[in-house]
Every structure is written in structure tokens, then in C-alpha cells.
Design a protein that fits this description.
about 350 residues; alpha+beta; Alpha-D-Glucose-1,6-Bisphosphate, Chain A, domain 4; 2 domains; 7 helices; about 35% strand; elongated; ATPase activator activity
């Protein structure tokens, strides 16, 4: 997202023969789901696990549910994938055939491959099945994780090719200066500008006083009401549960849900502290945008009221720099309310 108040350069198209995505400013997205399904089938279906005289084979992919997307924003590649996989396998020990399953409930970008859960089960209980179950647990899981790692590496390699377009200077035959790479990719939505340490921005009282000398801010208050087709406790969860906040912000968050606890969203661009939490009714935060003057915080109060067929959220945000008021309102709408409705199916009202 552009600096608040200055417009969004992702929608500014410079001169270029194809007139699209200059210098990779635009958010571009490719659907990687069909490719992923084909790749996972190739890597897993019929895969043979053999070691120390034992052998088991994946006979069928019983479940392959999920999706994958590859995105480019400002030249940074961002991959989202989430899969629920169930594999059927069989093996033989002492002339006795054994069958079973391997469940992989959450293969996603949120976890390293080594952390992905694989659960092994067998269809019968006897010495042969227990022997092969132990084999699949100790040996099979590691070999299957290597196949999953191959999928992730090839996903990134294949979809990187068409997402990063040559920059304007490069098209004219000139080279640009080497770009410094971030240490890691931040999976975040449009608030994210660059990788920064995920810490709440603070300043000492003395520094705050120095900043305030000769620079009096014109401050405004934002008040808005949003309606969601859900119960108050469901909306409260969306705003306070770390996994749900991660889902609608589409990125890593720091989220300490207690009075005085820090929160950091959108790659570090939004930060603050929880000041008051009333279960299913009220949330009060100190809240700042990274580009605001150092040490300056607004106060955000969100009050939930459950109606007969929906829940109302009343937001009051005080001490917003006047130049940022309208853009702040738009970004609450885009990156909070619309994203929450989209992520959790809470609906919208035409009124």
C-alpha cells in the first residue's frame, strides 16, 4: 500500500509497451491450485518408501483438498497454500499384507516442512501391522516430508518465472543496481511495505517532547458503524483470536491478548497495545500507523452489539492526523471489514 494520504502507486501505470505492472508495483496473482494438485499427485501417488528390507507404497491419494496462489507485490513473491491430504498405503511383512493411512491435515506456508503434522494409522492390529506402522512413523514420515518439500520448492520456482516482470530500465537495455534482499518473506496484505522487526513502535518521553516542538498536529476523530451477519462472539473472535487475525490480515501477526499486551499487524505497519478487553462486547487499543510521527498513537474503541439478525460494530478512533482521516477510514474498510467478511463469510448489508 502507498503511504497513507498520497494515493496508491500500484494503480499508476508508466510508459511501457504492454502498459501493465510497471516495475512490479501492481498486485498480481496466479491460481496455483490445478498445478499443485497435479504436482502433488505425481510426487505422492505410487511413492515407494523402502529401507532396511522393509517397503511400503502409497496406493492412492484418498483426499486432496485445498488451494494455492502465487502473488507478486512490489517485486516480492508471496505464496499461499493450504492442503488437507490423506494417503492410503500398503506394505508386506512376514508374507502378511498391511494397509493403512497417512493424514496430512495442514500443509501450509505457516509451517516449515519439518513441522508439518503427519499421522500414521493402520487398518488392523497385529504384529505385522504394528511393525509397518512403526516403520512408516519413523522412516515414512521423513521421506514423505521430502516429497512435500519438493512440491513447495517447485511451486516457488515455476510460478516465479512469470510473476516478476522486467523493470522499465531493464527493458531499455540498462541494468539497475542490485536490490538488497529481505532476510525473509513477509506474508501480508496491502499494508505491508517492507520487512521490519515485529515490534511495537515506541519513543521515550524526551524524544516525544523533542518531536512536538514547533509541530502541532491537527487531530481528528473517526466514527463508523459496520454490520456483520454473525453473532457477537464470532466477530469478537475474528478480532481477538490470533489464528483468525492471521487469516484476515493474510500474514504473520504479533498478538498478545491481555491488558497492556502488544499487537503488530500487516508486516509491522500497524502496531499498538490492548488497553481494555470485555468479552464479546468491547475492545480498546492504542493504535498507530508506522508512517505517523514517531511516538504518536490514536485510541481505537470497538464496541459490539448483537442484534436480532446481525451484529453491529461501532468504531471510534480519536487523535488521527487530519491529513490521514479519509484514508484511514478507507483502509479500515478495505483491510479490516471487507477482509473479515471475505475470510469468514460474515456477509454484508445493502443499506
Amino acid at each position: 500500500m502507498a503511504k497513507w494520504g498520497e494515493g496508491d502507486p500500484r494503480w499508476i501505470v508508466e510508459e511501457r509497451p504492454d502498459a501493465t505492472n510497471v516495475n512490479n508495483w501492481h498486485w498480481t496473482e496466479k491460481n496455483a491450485t490445478p498445478w499443485s494438485k497435479d504436482k502433488l499427485k505425481v510426487l505422492l501417488d505410487g511413492f515407494v518408501i523402502a529401507e532396511s528390507g522393509l517397503e511400503c507404497t502409497v496406493t492412492k491419494i484418498d483426499k486432496l483438498d485445498g488451494e494455492a496462489t502465487a502473488n507478486n507485490r512490489k517485486g516480492k513473491l508471496i505464496f499461499f497454500y493450504e492442503w488437507n491430504i490423506v494417503l492410503l498405503w500398503k506394505g508386506r511383512f512376514n508374507d502378511e499384507e498391511v494397509t493403512g493411512k497417512v493424514s496430512i491435515p495442514n500443509l501450509s506456508e505457516e509451517n516449515d516442512v519439518d513441522e508439518v503434522e503427519l499421522t500414521v494409522s493402520v487398518d488392523s492390529s497385529n504384529p505385522a501391522s504394528e511393525k509397518l506402522k512403526l516403520f512408516m512413523y519413523n522412516i515414512g514420515r521423513d521421506k514423505l516430508r521430502k516429497q512435500l518439500d519438493t512440491y513447495i520448492r517447485e511451486l516457488k520456482a515455476d510460478f516465479a518465472k512469470g510473476l516478476i516482470l522486467p523493470k522499465k530500465d531493464e527493458m531499455n537495455g540498462t541494468e539497475t543496481a542490485p536490490q538488497k534482499k529481505d532476510k525473509e518473506t513477509v506474508y501480508a496484505s496491502g499494508f505491508n511495505k517492507k520487512k521490519i522487526d515485529l515490534e511495537t513502535v515506541t519513543s521515550s518521553p524526551d524524544a516525544s517532547k523533542q518531536k512536538s516542538v514547533g509541530c502541532k498536529l491537527d487531530l481528528k476523530t473517526l466514527q463508523t458503524t459496520e454490520k456483520f451477519q454473525c453473532r457477537a462472539n464470532e466477530l469478537f473472535d475474528a478480532l481477538t483470536r490470533e489464528d483468525m487475525v492471521t487469516a484476515f490480515t493474510r500474514g504473520h501477526v504479533k498478538h498478545e491478548l491481555f491488558k497492556g499486551g502488544d499487537f503488530v499487524y500487516f508486516g509491522g505497519n500497524i502496531s499498538g497495545k490492548f488497553e481494555e478487553i470485555v468479552q464479546n462486547k468491547k475492545i480498546v487499543q492504542t493504535w498507530r500507523y508506522k508512517q505517523w510521527p514517531s511516538g504518536h498513537y490514536s485510541t481505537v474503541t470497538m464496541e459490539l452489539e448483537e442484534k436480532e439478525d446481525h451484529t453491529e460494530l461501532n468504531l471510534t478512533q480519536t487523535m488521527i492526523p487530519a491529513a490521514e482521516l479519509e484514508t484511514t477510514k478507507q483502509n479500515w474498510q478495505r483491510y479490516y471489514w471487507n477482509s473479515i467478511r471475505s475470510a469468514f463469510g460474515f456477509g454484508s448489508f445493502l443499506c
